[in-house]
Design brief:
GO molecular function: ABC-type amino acid transporter activity; ATP binding; ATP hydrolysis activity
Enzyme class: hydrolase
Bound molecules: adenosine-5'-diphosphate, magnesium ion
Keywords: ATP-binding, Hydrolase, Nucleotide-binding, Transport
Number of helices: 9
EC number: 3.6.3.-
Strand order of the largest sheet: 6-7-8-3-9-10
Shape: globular
Domain ABC transporter: 10-244
Length: 248
């Protein structure tokens, strides 16, 4: 792809966020291009979740600019619900509706938000279940699934809205070790399909393999960012060096 065709999907410029006297994000600037996979690493409490949550306005920055898909989030005229429909989010906890079937969980948002009629939503849901390797689970209750299966359903549910950006906040941190690989495989396939993704994870092997760019957060700042080979094999920042020595 030539430079001229590169499209910025997420533009963040000099964003700050405090909770009381706790200055959580400090002058964060970051652009993410279409089809890019950005992995965010860093110690607990460094502001990674707060950063992700700001991108769909679950948190509001104190100042600075955030533009998603060309929409300035601070602009009063921006319909934040429309922006959110294009951003899928997957968390550590699955937030599925436990009393519903797998298929109902995946169909719910597109039908409720009027994006698809039931027939189309069901067709889409069944396709997505194939994609995440759980086609045979369509009609079972979510209660009966393992954590890893629930997380793959949560990914399918987010994809049902046909988002063009996917955010993942430690999607495998709550899973038993033997479940982690299946979820990472789904994410890897999604990355290969060209989805724009921002992923917070402690899975360094996955980051090395899948990330176009790795961003290291520490104390509310982006201390270093670059391609995986550089960040993991030749880190310049001392705090990054220290962090990597603990996690790798
Ligand atoms: P990370 O995801 O990197 O672990 P977070 O973004 O969750 O970091 O948190 C960054 C800091 O902000 C932490 O000190 C945390 O306690 C604080 N924080 C996060 N959310 C809130 C909130 N809703 N209210 C007050 N403090 C918060
Ligand atoms: Mg977090």
């Amino acid at each position: 792809m030539s430079e001229a065709q590169t499209k910025v999907k997420v533009h963040v410029d000099k964003v700050n966020k405090s909770y009381g006297s706790n200055h959580v994000l400090r002058d964060i600037s970051l652009d993410i291009n279409e089809n890019e996979v950005v992995v965010m690493i860093g110690p607990s409490g460094s502001g990674k979740s707060t950063f992700l949550r700001m991108l769909n306005q679950l948190e509001t920055p104190d100042n600075g600019t955030i533009v998603v898909d060309g929409y300035d989030l601070s602009d009063k005229g921006t319909d934040i619900n429309k922006v959110r429909e294009n951003i899928g989010m997957v968390f550590q906890g699955f937030n599925l509706f436990n009393n519903y079937t797998v298929l109902e969980n995946i169909m719910l948002a597109p039908v409720e938000l009027g994006k698809m009629d039931k027939e189309k939503a069901e067709k889409k849901a069944r396709e997505l279940l194939e994609t995440v390797g759980l086609a045979e689970k369509a009609d079972v209750s979510v209660n009966s699934l393992s954590g890893g299966q629930k997380q793959r359903i949560a990914i399918a549910r987010a994809l049902a809205m046909e988002p063009d950006i996917m955010l993942f906040d430690e999607p495998t941190s709550a899973l038993d070790p033997e479940m982690v690989g299946d979820v990472l495989d789904v994410m890897k396939n999604l990355a290969e399909s060209g989805m724009t993704m921002i992923i917070v994870t402690h899975e360094m092997g996955f980051a090395k393999q899948v990330a176009d760019r790795v961003v290291f957060f520490e104390s509310g700042k982006i201390q270093e960012s670059g391609v995986p080979e550089q960040v993991f094999n030749a880190p310049k920042n001392e705090r990054l060096q220290e962090f990597l020595s603990k996690v790798m």
